[in-house]
Amino acid sequence: MSEAAALPPGEHPAHDPHLAHHFSSLERQVDASRLGMWLFLCTEVLLFSGLFVGYAVYRYSFPVAFAASSRTSEIWAGTVNTIVLITSSLTVALAIHFVRAGRQRAAVACLLITLVFALAFLGIKAIEYTAHFHEHQLPGRYYRFESVRLPGAEMYWALYFLMTGLHGLHVVIGMTVLAVIAWRTAHGYYSAHYYVGIELAGLYWHLVDLIWIFLYPLLYLI
Amino acid sequence: MAENGERHSALPYFLVWVALLILTITTFLTGRMHLGTWALPLALAIAVTKSLLVILFFMHVIHSTRLTWVVVIASFLWLGVLFVLTFADYLTRMWKIY
Q1: Cα atoms found within 13 Å of the Cα of residue A34, Cβ hemisphere only
Q2: What are phi and psi of B89, to 5 degrees?
Q3: Which pLDDT tens digit goes with each residue over A20-48?
Q4: B39 C-beta neighbours (distance < 10 Å), count
Q5: What residues of B are in contact with residue A41 (Cβ under 8 Å)?
Q6: Which has the closest alpha carbon to A53: B39, B86, B42?
């Protein structure tokens, strides 16, 4: 402190380039970043909670229509996408593992593989959506699917498109974040010494996976 | 960062991934059997197990500070409050019949 006071105005003692001035140490700064990310993820859980509770209420109100409708969803696509997302979660976890070990190139490779998996997920989702559009498995008054003519079926598809749509939006945001993080890692911004950005991007991506883990049985299996 | 540079093996990540794949296949197969009343509890139990694996190991909560634990638990606590209060309404709307 006294050292800082002795310097001319606008100058300050040398410190870690990653350290922001309002933190006493890099470790505290990283802990604060992690906590902030978790608080944000908490709000994300709440955002999806509303939809999950809405799903539960309508499933409780229209059990037969919901069971019949979920049986007409593309189960192969849901299952493949579950495996794709789980594997992409693994590659993100491995990216952090590699950067911790000082292997930035391997970390960048893992992040890029994750992006490929994310694209595959969106591609399969697009095929699914196209099929639903052709079959008129659509929300509200646009629902004209001949095989399931039950009250409440249009609510299943309203919730289906809301939940998978919001989840898909999160996939796109997650891909953007991962792409930026991969670019920064490739340019040496992150290293074994400082990699909290990759960690936080990873947390976001795992949340995307986490939500899908619940969407998959609710929308495709039961 | 918390582990301070000690060498870590990637093996636990692969084990968690294999466990997640096995659970996915299990929920897929049991979902196709149409188990009736037990289908929903079983599917949810498998989903909760999978999410615990992701949260504890992929998201490193098991190595995180207590404050992180508080935030993680709090987010699911709010979800619980939302469910319980909503269904305290919906499940008791037919009260007069009983």
Answers
A1: 24
A2: -80, -60
A3: 888 888 888 999 999 999 999 999 999 99
A4: 17
A5: 75
A6: B86
State the complex-level ipTM.
Answer: 0.89
B21 vs A81: CA distance, rounded Å: 12
Q: Is A195:A99 a contact under the CB 8 Å cutoff?
A: yes
Nearest beta carbon to residue B20 from set A31, A75, A86? A86
pLDDT at B7: 61
Exposed/middle/buried for residue A113 (C-beta within 10 Å: 0-12, 13-18, 19+)? middle
| Contact residues, chain B, for A80 at CB < 8 Å | none
Cβ proximity of A161 and A139 under 8 Å: yes
**Contact criterion met (CB < 8 Å) for A57 and B86:** yes
Q: Is the minimum CB–CB distance between A63 and chain B shorter than 8 Å?
A: no
Give yes or no for a contact between B42 and B68, defined as CB atoms under 8 angstroms apart: no
The H or E element spanning position A197 is: helix A196-216
CB–CB contact A82 B24 (8 Å): yes
Residues 6+ apart with CB under 8 A from A178: A92, A111, A114, A115, A118, A201, A205
pLDDT tens per residue across span A168-218: 999 999 999 999 999 999 999 999 999 999 999 999 999 999 999 999 999
Q: Is B12 on the interface with A (CB under 8 A)?
A: no
CA B12 to chain centre: 19
Give the separation between CA A5 and CA A140, rounded to whole angstroms. Answer: 68
What phi, psi does A102 have (nearest 5°)?
Answer: 80, 15
Which residues are CB-contacts of A201 (< 8 A; sequence separation ≥ 6)? A92, A174, A177, A178, A181
Return the SS3 of B4: coil
Helix (H, G, I), strand (E, B) or coil at B81: helix
